[in-house]
Structures are given as C-alpha cells and as structure tokens.
Specification:
Elements: H1 2-7, H2 15-27, H3 32-45, H4 65-74, H5 76-79, H6 90-102, H7 120-132, H8 141-157, H9 162-174
Length: 175
C-alpha cells in the first residue's frame, strides 16, 4: 500500500508525509486497512502543520465564536490563520497556547495540523513540535511530519483514543 502511494500522482505535496506516517503506523503494528483509512482521512482533513483558517469574508456569520475570540485576543487571523507552523515562531505559538490553556480554552482555540487538533490536544502537539526541533524557535517540515506522526501514535495508544482502533478491529471481524 505504501509503495502504491509512493508511485501515485494523486497525493500532491502530501505524498511524502503520507508515506512517512503510513510506515510509522505499519511499524507500530497497525493493519494495512486501518492505515489506509487513517491516511485517507489525513489526506482529506488537513495539512501537516497547517493552522485553521479564520477568513470568513464571504460569510462572516459562519465564523465560529472561538475563532472570533482568537482574532480579537491574539491577532490569530493576521499571525496564524491559513499559515504553516514552520512559517511562524514556535515560541510565540507556545506562549499563546500557555495563555489559552491557563484559561481552560474558554478564550479561544484553533485547529492545527493534519487532524486539526484543538484545545488541549493542540497544546500537546505544540509540545511535540518543540521536542522535535530541540526547543528551537523554528521547525522544519520534516520535523513537523515526525511530530504529528508521534502525536497520532501516542493518541492511538492512549486510553482516550485507543477505542478508535479497538472499535475498528471489532467491526472488521463482523464483516
């Protein structure tokens, strides 16, 4: 399956990252069918290190309250919206996340990365980014992919998200 992705022209700029994540999942013991489904979701859901867009110019009424708060309190639309984490200061991002966490995410949140993690999960992802680049202020795309891959594996093994895989296995046995 991973070889098919490598040889395909369908995945554009995500192909390299999907191969890395696919191999990581395979090396952690996940079945090919599960990996295929997860990679399809990643391919559809978001981009590695991508910040949720806050630009609702065509229909401002659809803009969620949490993004309105982010724009007004943190200049999110100007500094982060629609950008990639490797384009911004990780230290500034960490500072913002520290403030958001302190307020228990009541003053805003935002989606980040392939899964568009939000809230506390964003905070954990930012910590993964910082570990991956040894607490530098900038991170490379390769480091972003590695950090998000580790985040996915950690979540799938955690008590909070282990059921995703376990439920999938139960349903597959029924079919």
């Amino acid at each position: 399956m991973i070889t098919k992705i490598e040889n395909s022209n369908q995945f554009g700029d995500k192909k390299h990252a999907l191969v890395i994540i696919g191999n990581l999942l395979f090396n952690n013991g996940y079945e090919t069918a599960f990996i295929a489904g997860l990679l399809a979701n990643i391919n559809y859901e978001g981009n590695f290190g991508f910040f949720e867009c806050s630009n609702y110019k065509s229909n401002p009424n659809l803009k969620p309250k949490y993004l309105k708060l982010m724009d007004s309190l943190y200049k999110y639309n100007e500094l982060y919206s629609g950008k990639y984490v490797h384009e911004i200061s990780l230290k500034a991002l960490k500072d913002m996340c520290d403030k958001l966490k302190k307020d228990n995410w009541q003053k805003g949140k935002f989606g980040l990365g392939t899964i568009q993690w939000t809230g506390e999960r964003t905070y954990i992802l930012v910590e993964h980014y910082l570990r991956e680049c040894n607490n530098a202020d900038k991170i490379s795309l390769e480091q972003v992919i590695s950090a998000e891959g580790k985040m996915i594996i950690n979540e799938l093994k955690s008590n909070s998200y282990k059921s995703i895989y376990d439920d999938w296995k139960k349903k597959i046995k029924i079919i």
